[in-house]
Amino acid sequence: MAVKCPAGFDVNRLRELVHETYDRVAHEPQGDFHFHRGLDYAVEFLNYDRKELESLPEECTARFAGVGNPHRIGKINPGETVLDHACGAGMDLLLAAKKVRTGGKAIGVDMTKAMRDYAKAAAEKAGLSHIVDIREGFLEELPVEDESVDVVISNGVVNLSPDKEKVFKEIARVLKPGGRLFLADVVVQRELKLDARSSPELWAACIGGSLPEPELFEISSAVGLSDGKILERFDCFRNTSAEVKVSKDLYVQAVNFFARK
User: Fold this and answer.
1) pLDDT tens column, 97-125
2) pLDDT, position 5
3) Which of 8, 72, 153, 176 is deepest in the core (most CB within 10 A)?
4) What range defines the domain where residue 15 resides?
């Protein structure tokens, strides 16, 4: 059974905190946050290719705040349609756009206007605006047609949603038959205590809403996805303030997860 918000949990406050946090990342990417950001972090912690990232505009790489690397999960082919369902400033999205090339499409959805603006600016500067399509929206209500997407990429955002079942249902809805999910997200090996689950601040820190690892398989299977597998693990919170907010025996980490419709 997927993580549920505890009784009395302030869902509206969570959404406000998430928006405030990532709006601040957009405007102050070098600011003080509870998580890592930027190109060097992506290369050194998450195994991104430095040359590939250095080919992208700084507008997107400086504001990157993912937890894993969906581009190491599987191949994105020329001509395909890729959706990043919470694209932020667009680093993963632009990498996908370079792979689908002309004839393909890279759709980015995000709820934060400042992030969408930076993603659009980065796509324009990279010469990819004819491939990239940025849309306003939420994980739980994607502005994307049924069965229209070959690959959904996701990086560090499912944990932020109070309704993970709806997020996965939306992923399954937009994927074509045979479509693939390349998901990186935070998981725990033991259930969090109620006070952690009840804290909007810890949810906004990408920890309070993280799934116990077995539930990642359960929820993806429940919406009709198959072949679920974890391919890689990342210590994305190492040396951050978030690392000290939960006990180390919970083994909070990020994983690269693959599934297919």
Assistant:
1) 999 998 999 999 999 999 999 999 999 99
2) 57
3) 153
4) 11-260
Note whether residue 5 is domain-resident.
Answer: no
Percentage helix, strand, coil, to 5, in the chain?
40, 25, 40
> Is 73 within a domain?
yes
Find the helix or strand (DSSP H, E) in which 216 lies: helix 213-222
Cβ atoms of residues 154 and 70 within 8 Å: yes
Inter-residue contact 37 to 21 (CB < 8 Å): no
Helix (H) or strand (E) holding 150: strand 149-155
Rounded Cα gap, residues 214 and 130, in angstroms = 40
First to last CA, the chain: 20
Q: Which helix (H) or strand (E) holds 219?
A: helix 213-222
CB 122 within 8 A of CB 93: no
Q: Which of 159, 134, 130, 143 is nearest to 67 (CA)?
A: 159
Asked if residue 159 is part of any domain, the answer here is yes
Q: How many domains does the chain have?
A: 1
Q: What tokens does 232 get?
A: 């890689």
3-state secondary structure of 226: strand
Nearest alpha carbon to residue 121 among 88, 96, 76, 80: 88
Q: Taking the model in full, what pTM does it have?
A: 0.92
201: in domain: yes
**35, 75, 195, 242 from 24: Cα distances, Å:** 13, 33, 26, 17
Is residue 172 within 8 Å of 111, Cβ to Cβ? no
pLDDT digits (tens, 9 = 90+) for 181-220: 999 999 988 777 766 676 776 777 677 788 999 999 999 9
